Amino acid sequence: MSVPPLSPEGAADSALRAGLPLAGDRHAVVAGTAHHILTVISRLRELDLAEIPPATAYRVKDR
């Protein structure tokens, strides 16, 4: 599943709603960074982890 890119204006609006106003020269950089993060999260959500035990079940083996 691909994530649509976030426009610089969309990044500025989202940041402002979160109480983090951005300087005009930061809009494109923040949009690119947010897109990258959302793309990675999207790929992680696609992983089938049904057969993977939770980390609390991991035991270190003695050598």
Reconstruct the topology from this structure:
Layout: H1 8-17, H2 27-45
Helix pairs in contact: 1-2
**From N to C, what is the helix and strand string?**
HH
Fraction in beta strands: under 5%
> So what's the overall shape?
elongated
Low-confidence stretches: none
The portion of residues assigned to helices is 40-55%
> Radius of gyration from the CA trace?
18 Å
Can you count the helices? 2
Q: Distance between termini?
A: 42 Å
Question: What is the makeup of the main sheet?
Answer: none
Mean pLDDT: 90
How many beta-strand segments?
Answer: 0
Structural class given helices, strands, pairing? mainly alpha
Explained architecture:
With 63 residues, the chain is mostly helical. It is 46% helix and 0% strand. The protein has 2 helices and no strands. Helix 1 packs across helix 2 (27-45). The chain is elongated.
Descriptive key words:
single chain, 63 residues, mainly alpha, 2 helices, 46% helix, elongated
Short description:
The chain has 63 residues and is an all-alpha fold. The protein is 46% helix and 0% strand.
